[in-house]
Every structure is written in C-alpha cells, then in structure tokens.
Amino acid sequence: MRIERVDEKTVKCFLSNQELEEYDIDYKDFITRSEKAKEVMQEIIEQAEEEVGYKPPQFAFDLQIMMLPEQGMLLTFSERDPEVREGEQFIECLKEMKRILQRTREKLNQTGENGSGRETPDSKQEDKSSEENRRAARPGFAVFVFSGVGRVMEYAAVLPSNLQVDSSLYEMDGLYYLYLQKGHASYERYSRACIQALEFGNLYAAEERQTTYLREHGQCLIEAKAIRKLRG
C-alpha cells in the first residue's frame, strides 16, 4: 500500500487491485464497515503513524472511498473540520482521482512535447492548459454508492425539490449506485448536492469511463429522475 500525508488531519492510502485481492476485500466491505475492513483500516492507520507520523483523531474520523477500477482503491482518512470551506473536500477528492488516472497520459504528453528538442508550449497553450485544469476541478458528473436504498431515499429527501440535476439509480451486489449529473442546475447547487451525498454514501466514480462495469453488470432500477421519484 502507498500512504501519503496530506496535512496534519488527513492521510491518503492507495491500495492496488493486487493488494485488494491479497486482503480478500473490496469496496463493499468498507462501505458496510465489515470486520475485515476494520482490520485493514487499523493496519493502514498504524502504518501511517509509523511512516508519515499521522496522528489519528482521538474520537472519530471521516473515511472517503474512491474506486479506481483499473488500478485499485483510494482511501482518505480525515478529521472533520467545520472551518474547512464547504465543497472543498469533494473537489479535492475528485481532483486527486483525476490526477492518479491521468498521471501516465500526462507524462507521455510531456515526453512528446519536450523530448524531441522542441520549445516548451507558448503562452496560448499554457492558457489553454490552465483553462482545462480549471474545468477539471469543476466536475459535472459523479456516481455515489450507498449501503441500502433507504440511505438513497434519505439523501433524496434532504435535497431541494426544484434541484434540476439528472439522476439514475443502479443496484449491484446489494449496493445502490446513484448517477448524479449537473444537468440544468447551477454548479454551486450541484456541488452542494454532491457534498450532501457524502453524508449518506461514498464516492464511487467521477468519470464516465469508470462506470463500464457497473452499467454492464448492475441492474438499472430508475433510468431517469431518480432523485425526484425516490423523494416520493
């Protein structure tokens, strides 16, 4: 496992697919907080204390789970901080996921641009890159996984009735997956809805290409307007 210290209150741990197989564990164990998952989390915390000097909170911590289907799983342990700007945690999680998934492609692009002796990109190219990075930090698509349909309904109930997001619901292996797209909602309202989703479930994916397995093997329960229908 690879552990990274983010700040005094946050640590991230990347578990490869091979390590997940060795532990005989998957995202369902972490979402349901099985005994097996608790043992692995304890091992991660102990290793984080030893390797990066992480000091876990005395009482409780937040755990965010991000699936990287082709690579593994990213776990983020953090102490709740009421002074952190609302929405920052969600955006940082998605940015971290994108950074991991795009690392190899970015290195290849850099080699193509600079490895042949050509000049570095001009100011227009840099401006374009900055604009793309800015947009990447404002994602308009996410899939959240919930331990039960009741949790999805609880989440839908707290959202504004006039929230114009697009949503659909899938079930796979006893877990429920809510596709949430920005739709016609403002980014501020969409972002707030994503933050609220993290209070009831976990982030599963932030890019369409990560959902292939779920679409192929999961059962679509509600194809459109899932949030509105679940609100009743």
Descriptive notes:
The chain has helices spanning 17-23, 27-31, 35-52, 88-114, 123-136, 149-158, 187-197, 212-217, 226-231; strands spanning 2-7, 10-16, 62-68, 72-78, 141-146, 166-172, 175-181, 202-205, 219-222. The strands form two sheets. It has a five-stranded antiparallel β-sheet with strand order 8-5-7-6-9. A four-stranded antiparallel β-sheet has the order 1-2-4-3, sandwiched between helices. With 232 residues, the chain is α+β, with helices and mostly antiparallel strands. A hairpin with a 2-residue loop joins strand 1 and strand 2. It is built from nine helices and nine strands. The longest helix has 27 residues, at 88-114. It folds into two domains: 2-78, no CATH class; 141-231, Alpha-Beta Plaits, CATH 3.30.70.1950.
Q: What overall geometry do the principal axes of the alpha carbons give?
A: globular
The gyration radius over C-alpha positions equals: 19 Å
CATH topology of the largest domain: Alpha-Beta Plaits
Contiguous low-pLDDT stretches (5 residues minimum) are 82-86, 115-120
DSSP summary, beta strand count: 9
Give the rounded overall mean pLDDT: 77
Cα-to-Cα separation, first versus last residue: 43 Å
Q: Would you list the SSEs in sequence order as H and E? A: EEHHHEEHHEHEEHEHEH
Q: Which CATH class of the largest domain?
A: Alpha Beta
Helix content estimate: 40-55%
CATH architectural arrangement of the largest domain: 2-Layer Sandwich
Strand content: 15-25%
Overall number of domains = 2
Put simply, the count of helices is: 9
Largest sheet: 5 strands, antiparallel
